Amino acid sequence: MSRAQQLHELLVEGSELNIVCHNNPDPDCLASALALGRIAANAGIDEQHILYSGDISHQQNRAFVNLLDIDLKPFDPTALQDRAADALLAFVDHSVPGANNNVPEGTSVDIVIDHHPAEDIGAQFVDHREEVGAAATILTEYVRTLDIDPDAVLATALLFAIRRDTLNFLRGATREEYDAAGYLHDHADHDLLRQLSTPSVTGATLDAISTAIDNRTTKAAVLISHVGRTTERDAVPQAADYLATLEGVETTIVFGIVHDTVHLSARSPDPRIHVGDVLRETFKDVGSAGGHHDVAGGEIPLGLFADYTTDDEQLLDIVEQVITARLLAGLDLADDSEE
């Protein structure tokens, strides 16, 4: 029995499906949730909910939700306590309660479909494939295996998610991504794909990227920078993507303060550096971080710096000094840097 069929067998026993996205969900998570909902409907589950915590702030993510008219609901952790015995709980594009989600640690999860590095995954159904480039690739495989005809919305969502998570097949793409994209191509709305690929950019995002350009520090082929304080959470990874194109740079790490949290984003095609491991080991005692060898991220509660100062400018200086020093140490680089 294929994994898709095993999933179907589990779903036919359920009366309700709650699909919990990771915090601040991206297109890969959202498209995967949409596809899992269609698979559940095919198995006879009429009541499905796609739940999320955090923000959908990246302009491409907002366009994705709005243009595809995805029905999202805020996640309420207390609601899980009262769910019926046959109400299933699913994770897509993440895998462990309490890790990049607001699900209480120790919560029983029924379905996990993910491609990110993780340990101690527990669920009735687990499909964890670190080798594939996107969770949407796995869900596309299920749709094909179960002979579910994807409509234009679902096909567009999955195809865009695969393209986005692999940087148009330039990062972490495998043969499975190309195969999935080839299947989805004839079903997708290509005008809608173009709209999703070219969303407008906010002034705050441009300001944050400009700040990161001004604040960049390099040592050998490593660039570290920050965007200061911003309301645009996704400006941090966007700044990392932009600075990663700088000539001579192999590894880029950008951080910034968003509300009460320090966000980090890293990029590195350098095979000698696993940025997911670097961030995890560097900040495991103060926050949560990790990811793949070439793309990673993390979050550190700003409260850890509260004892330093209540002045925002001084706080920014302290955060910059502490985060940069930790990163340089984690990368085995000398503290002296060249700009």
Automatic annotation (TrEMBL):
Documented EC number(s): 3.1.3.7
Ranges of residues in domain DDH: 19-162
Keyword Acetylation assigned: no
Domain called DHHA1: residue spans: 222-323
Any Pfam family hit: DHH
InterPro entries associated with the record: DDH_dom, DHH_sf, DHHA1_dom, Oligoribo/pAp-PDE_c-di-AMP_PDE
Record keyword Magnesium present: no
Molecular functions (GO terms): 3'(2'),5'-bisphosphate nucleotidase activity
Keywords of this entry: Hydrolase
Recorded superkingdom: Archaea
Gene3D superfamilies the record matches: 3.10.310.30, inorganic pyrophosphatase (n-terminal core)
Protein name: Bifunctional oligoribonuclease/PAP phosphatase NrnA
Organism of this sequence: Haloarchaeobius amylolyticus
